[in-house]
């Protein structure tokens, strides 16, 4: 059995809270994930959606960002799709280690690290018009 | 002391950042950020905290975070920011003697 939930949001940060709320309601109705996993997925999805919105804003695009939640048995997959022109994760700037006082110079750039650490699988795929991030968590 | 409630994400972080800038502008001896009523923090929120730690270090003051919620403590561990920030379980503990250069007690040389 599989269930699908799909929403589209305008590229503005005030919609992030709604994306998290939809994710929680979609997964709380029939508890699939442990509470801790749900928290992790909420954060990973929020990070990916933030990046997607940011990409649209940089291009001045008002196209919608798509969030699709698919539940198949004990596996939850969330795809966040944008049309923000694309992004190369291999070109992310490397931060100094946290214990280095220099680390305090970096206030951004933890998002992709978190997406990877908080999910069982995180794939960033370039598309013709932007990027699709696929996040997977298994119970 | 800054008490924060609700969710810290890209939509709300700018307000918190402004408050941090305002308060650190007074050059206090110490700053305590109370996160006990915060339900959600994303990487932007962590960035604001890094900024607060940096400003407090620049002015030679202490910086502490009150945080007893497991998912937030886990978030600090995953990002290893627990090595940069001084985390406290309760506000009372955090308020004791919060001054002097910190924000990275045990992490700086």
What is the element layout, followed by pairings?
The complex is a heterodimer of chains A (139) and B (109).
Chain A: E1 2-9, H1 16-28, H2 35-59, E2 65-72, E3 75-82, H3 111-118, E4 121-126, E5 131-138
Antiparallel strand pairs in A: 1-2, 2-3, 3-5, 4-5
Helix pairs in contact in A: 1-2, 2-3
Chain B: E1 2-8, H1 13-25, E2 30-41, H2 43-58, E3 62-66, H3 70-78, E4 86-88, H4 91-95
Parallel strand pairs in B: 1-2, 2-3, 3-4
Helix pairs in contact in B: 1-2
Explained architecture:
The complex is a heterodimer of chains A (139) and B (109). Chain A has 139 residues and is of the alpha+beta class. Chain A has a single domain (2-138), classed as Histidine kinase-like ATPase, C-terminal domain (Heat Shock Protein 90), CATH 3.30.565.10. Chain A has three helices and five strands; from the N terminus they run E-H-H-E-E-H-E-E. A five-stranded antiparallel β-sheet of chain A has the order 1-2-3-5-4, covered by helices on one side. In chain A, strand 2 and strand 3 (75-82) form a beta hairpin. The longest helix of chain A is centred in the middle third of the chain and has 25 residues, at 35-59. The mean pLDDT of chain A is 89. Helices cover 39% and strands 25% of the residues of chain B. Chain B is globular. In chain B, helix 1 runs parallel beside helix 2 (43-58). The N and C termini of chain B lie far apart (26 Å). Chain B has a single domain (2-95), classed as Transcription Regulator spoIIAA (2-Layer Sandwich). Chain B has 109 residues and is an alpha/beta fold. The longest helix of chain B is centred in the middle third of the chain and has 16 residues, at 43-58. Chain B has a four-stranded parallel β-sheet. Chain A binds chain B through residues 13-14, 16-17, 20, 36, 39, 42-43, 46-47, 50, 53-54, 97-99, 101, 103-111, 113-114, 117-118, and chain B through 7, 9-11, 40, 42-44, 46-48, 50-51, 53-54, 57, 70-71, 74-75, 78-81, 83-84, 103-104, 107-109.
